[in-house]
């Protein structure tokens, strides 16, 4: 699997040239993709043109409004959820009037957690300038930034005039090998891996059998059926293209008949791994431990490659019991070139996210 940023970007560019976005991602209407380059730095960008309903990885409106409503329904009692949902609905009307969804997201790999290259300040500054000039009516967004792994990026983008908007509460495992030695839950997981009757499927097995439709279905069972339709709705073509372009490493477990029961699909750069393609057959009894087994596969690969793990959001107690540290993830937004009314809308979202949503996520362990 590719982990050098330049190699990953070129492979992603080739993937986008070969496949229309609508063949890869079903819930991103009115979105286009491109690659922007400056010197030694190049990143993919998504361009969201309007407020059509779509996945939160391409639309700030979906991320900060639609997803907030869904999370309120899922985690809060009705007496608390209903007024929040109603208030957000009013906020959405205002944000639509101010074209809040009109956004360019830089370094957007169309996954929940975008991995970042080493910061090259001069090149990054030129990227911002080029993108602002090319899309003068769009706010410029950088997603998936956290203070543990991206302190330099956050400081740099603030210096350029970006606002930092809290998004999700995520979990970082900086040293998976050390965590395995210290935390008993990892040892229980390792015992489960040793004793399972399921059959391990390596990346080479996936290359040979190419069960990409099954990979898509397992992802859908978890991320769409169990969690949210606002998560990316990938096609099997997306799974296949990522894997065959060297951008995705797949592992999993199958039953005696050879049917794949779960998948852990990881992406990585020089320092960090994350698992955007993850899923399992949710009808299988919990005692089989499919979630634990596949989480363990991602950790195995991280240790083998000497990588930290960005464990993304959700299942906070599970991740903290295995040594992960919670932190807030941010979006950095540049909007100085936009009308003042649009800037005020972005500042309103920043205020609500910072003083209402973020404290609530921490309090509820969301």
Question: What topology does this entry show?
Answer:
Blueprint: H1 5-18, H2 21-24, E1 31-38, E2 41-48, H3 60-75, H4 78-97, E3 103-106, H5 121-134, E4 139-145, H6 151-159, E5 163-173, H7 176-182, H8 184-195, E6 199-201, H9 203-209, H10 212-227, H11 236-244, E7 249-254, E8 260-268, E9 272-280, H12 290-305, E10 308-313, H13 316-320, E11 325-334, H14 340-364
Parallel strand pairs: 3-4, 9-10
Antiparallel strand pairs: 1-2, 2-3, 4-11, 5-10, 5-11, 6-7, 7-8, 8-9
Describe this structure as you would to a colleague.
InterPro entries: YbeY_CS (IPR020549). The chain contains 14 helices and eleven strands. The protein is globular. It is α+β, with helices and mostly antiparallel strands and 366 residues long. The chain folds into two domains: 5-169 and 329-364, no CATH class; 173-320, Gcn5-related N-acetyltransferase (GNAT) (Aminopeptidase), CATH 3.40.630.30. The two termini are 32 Å apart. It has an eleven-stranded mixed β-sheet. The mean pLDDT is 96.
């Amino acid at each position: 699997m590719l982990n050098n940023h330049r190699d990953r970007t070129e492979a992603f560019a080739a993937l986008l040239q070969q496949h229309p976005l609508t063949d890869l991602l079903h819930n991103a209407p009115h979105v286009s993709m491109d690659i922007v380059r400056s010197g030694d730095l190049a990143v993919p960008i998504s361009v969201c043109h309007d407020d059509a309903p779509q996945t939160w990885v391409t639309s700030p409106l979906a991320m900060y409004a639609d997803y907030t409503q869904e999370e309120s329904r899922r985690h809060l009692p009705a007496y608390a959820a209903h007024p929040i949902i109603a208030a957000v609905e009013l906020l959405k009307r205002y944000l639509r009037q101010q074209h809040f969804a009109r956004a360019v997201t830089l370094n957007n790999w169309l996954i929940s957690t975008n991995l970042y290259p080493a910061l090259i300040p001069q090149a990054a500054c030129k990227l911002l300038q080029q993108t602002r000039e090319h899309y003068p009516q769009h706010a410029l967004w950088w997603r998936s930034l956290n203070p543990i792994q991206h302190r330099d990026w956050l400081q740099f983008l603030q210096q350029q005039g970006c606002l930092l908007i809290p998004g999700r509460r995520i979990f970082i495992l900086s040293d998976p090998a050390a965590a395995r030695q210290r935390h008993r839950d990892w040892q229980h997981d390792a015992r489960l891996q040793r004793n399972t009757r399921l059959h391990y499927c390596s990346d080479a097995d996936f290359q040979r059998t190419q069960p990409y439709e099954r990979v898509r279905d397992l992802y859908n069972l978890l991320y769409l059926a169990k969690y949210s339709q606002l998560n990316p709705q990938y096609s099997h073509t997306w799974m296949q293209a990522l894997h065959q372009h060297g951008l995705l490493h797949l592992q999993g477990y199958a039953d005696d008949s050879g049917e794949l029961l779960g998948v852990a699909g990881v992406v990585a750069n020089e320092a960090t791994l994350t698992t955007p393609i993850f899923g399992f057959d949710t009808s299988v009894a919990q005692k089989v431990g499919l979630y634990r087994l596949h989480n363990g596969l991602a950790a195995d690969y991280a240790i083998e490659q000497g990588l930290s793990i960005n464990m993304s959001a959700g299942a906070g107690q599970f991740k903290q019991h295995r040594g992960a540290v919670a932190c807030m993830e941010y979006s950095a937004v540049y909007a100085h070139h936009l009308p003042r009314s649009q800037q005020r809308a972005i500042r309103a979202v920043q205020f609500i996210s910072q003083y209402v949503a973020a404290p609530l996520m921490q309090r509820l362990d969301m």
